[in-house]
Design a protein that fits this description.
Layout: H1 3-10, H2 14-23, E1 29-30, E2 36-37, H3 42-54, H4 59-71, H5 75-107
Antiparallel strand pairs: 1-2
Length: 118
């Protein structure tokens, strides 16, 4: 399938598909005309990529784990492990943000909010 059809089916722009290809998230073969030809299953993969992004995974994480997920004997188990790791990352970040909020709150009204302890 040509890039325009893939982009339309996946709900993406052609530029996004090209960008994903540059990152190695998708691959194509070149036709004699020079056009990119993508496998039909690329549509499903791109939908996965978009869903993973909405769940907080970066494109680098998706690229890093994509091949491992495609080759995993039990995809559900592999995904569960990735989700558990992402939850740990989110929990750590939430704790950091809670501490930052407490620090900022302690400095409100101190006259000089950049001076520790007021």
């Amino acid at each position: 399938m040509l890039i325009g059809e893939l982009a339309a089916r996946a709900g993406l722009s052609r530029d996004t598909v090209r960008f994903y290809e540059k990152l190695g998230l998708v691959t194509s073969r070149r036709l004699p005309s020079g056009y990119r030809d993508f496998a039909p299953e690329t549509v499903v993969w791109l939908q996965y990529v978009r869903t993973a992004q909405t769940l907080g995974f970066s494109l680098a994480e998706i690229a890093r784990h994509g091949e491992e997920l495609r080759d995993a004997p039990d995809t559900a188990q592999a995904l569960s492990a990735l989700f558990a790791e992402k939850i740990r990352v989110v929990d750590t970040r939430m704790a950091e943000l809670t501490a930052l909020r407490a620090e900022l709150t302690a400095r409100v009204g101190t006259g000089c909010p950049l001076r520790a302890g007021g």
